[in-house]
Task: inverse folding
């Protein structure tokens, strides 16, 4: 069985029955660390593991009995057991083991969530697109997400291959969690199937641009609608104001990063869209009953 290094976020690993052979190892920085995530290009069957592939337009997925023609950019989600024999075209692939999300995860327990408890079970949210997957799934990319997904793939590649500083393991994992959140949102949303659904499209936009300073003026220009109608429709369908919905997105991701990475808190708050620590601390405590630093300390003790 391959050696499982102590994770960079400070939780001792389980002794897995599964052989974990998917690793990017530290080179110049964090040489003692390995993370279960690998980036590759134009190779789909190089090793075991879950896979997320970003397919450029005009790609062909070759399956044992069928060929799937992809005319626009798409995401391919692949289970550890799949019938894909090859892909013709240009694409980027992320191979990973579930421990990249939570060190307690295995291929088995993310499908049988009753094996997990507490926050471990909550973290299976990030792998919902794999929990029921038996073979592979082709996801049409919502236009609001395409640029962000492309940037995330490029940023993950940079962190894994260049490893620019000692935080490369945390940053790789953080970027990968962002990618999983986007893909989960795409799976849950109906906006890419119903382009006329204004509120769903606004939700997609907020999920994609949450780290930016979003205002009503920006949204009214983006969706060609006046502020009053925009705010009224959103509140009627979601029960929340646009600002409340946006802050909830930011805090949900911040909570995950505080719990599962060792990124500095100041880096986390800017990453999720807050512009100063006072506003972040106040919003986080109001939502979760604890300051960010105390929440992180508590989770490290558990």
Result:
């Amino acid at each position: 069985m391959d050696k499982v290094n102590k994770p960079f976020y400070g939780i001792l690993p389980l002794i897995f029955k599964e052989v974990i052979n998917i690793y990017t190892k530290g080179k110049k920085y964090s040489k003692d660390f390995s993370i279960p995530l690998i980036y590759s290009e134009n190779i789909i069957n190089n090793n075991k593991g879950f896979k997320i592939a970003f397919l450029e337009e005009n790609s062909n997925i070759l399956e044992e009995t069928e060929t799937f023609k992809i005319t626009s950019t798409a995401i391919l989600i692949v289970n550890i057991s799949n019938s894909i024999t090859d892909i013709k075209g240009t694409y980027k692939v992320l191979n990973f083991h579930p421990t990249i999300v939570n060190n307690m995860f295995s291929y088995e327990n993310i499908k049988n969530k009753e094996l997990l408890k507490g926050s471990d079970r909550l973290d299976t949210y990030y792998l919902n697109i794999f929990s029921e997957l038996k073979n592979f799934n082709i996801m049409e990319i919502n236009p609001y997400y395409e640029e962000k997904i492309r940037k995330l793939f490029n940023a993950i590649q940079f962190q894994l291959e260049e490893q620019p500083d000692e935080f490369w393991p945390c940053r790789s994992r953080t970027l990968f969690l962002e990618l999983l959140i986007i893909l989960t949102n795409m799976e849950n949303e109906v906006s890419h199937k119903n382009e006329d659904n204004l509120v769903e499209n606004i939700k997609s936009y907020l999920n994609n641009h949450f780290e930016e300073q979003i205002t009503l003026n920006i949204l009214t220009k983006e969706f060609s609608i006046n502020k009053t109608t925009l705010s009224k429709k959103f509140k009627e369908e979601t029960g929340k104001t646009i600002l409340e919905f946006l802050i909830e997105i930011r805090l949900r991701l911040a909570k995950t990063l505080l719990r599962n990475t060792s990124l500095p808190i100041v880096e986390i708050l800017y990453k999720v869209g807050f512009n100063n620590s006072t506003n972040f601390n106040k919003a986080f405590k109001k939502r979760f009953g604890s300051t960010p630093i105390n929440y992180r300390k508590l989770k490290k003790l558990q």
About this structure: The beta strands are 24-25, 34-35, 37-41, 50-55, 59-63, 67-70, 74-78, 84-88, 91-96, 136-140.
